[in-house]
Amino acid sequence: MPIYQIYCELCDRTFQGTTLQGLKAPERWVCSQCGCDAKLMDDKPAAAHPLENIHHKGCPCCG
Ligand SMILES: [Zn+2]
Fold first, then answer.
1. pLDDT tens readout for residues 7-24
2. Backbone dihedral region of 34: left (phi > 0), alpha (psi from -120 to 50 degrees) or beta?
């Protein structure tokens, strides 16, 4: 399950958001603390299941 780093400016707080397996990252995130819009720190998951994220830039087999 991908884990995303989400940042809320209002709370000055970074937290982790997850998606259900197989789903893309939501376009909109809501801070779990204040309920306001929060933003994605990175458009890529900070962590993913190893088997879901083997290939990437610089990968020996992908170039
Ligand atoms: Zn907040």
1. 999 999 998 888 776 777
2. alpha
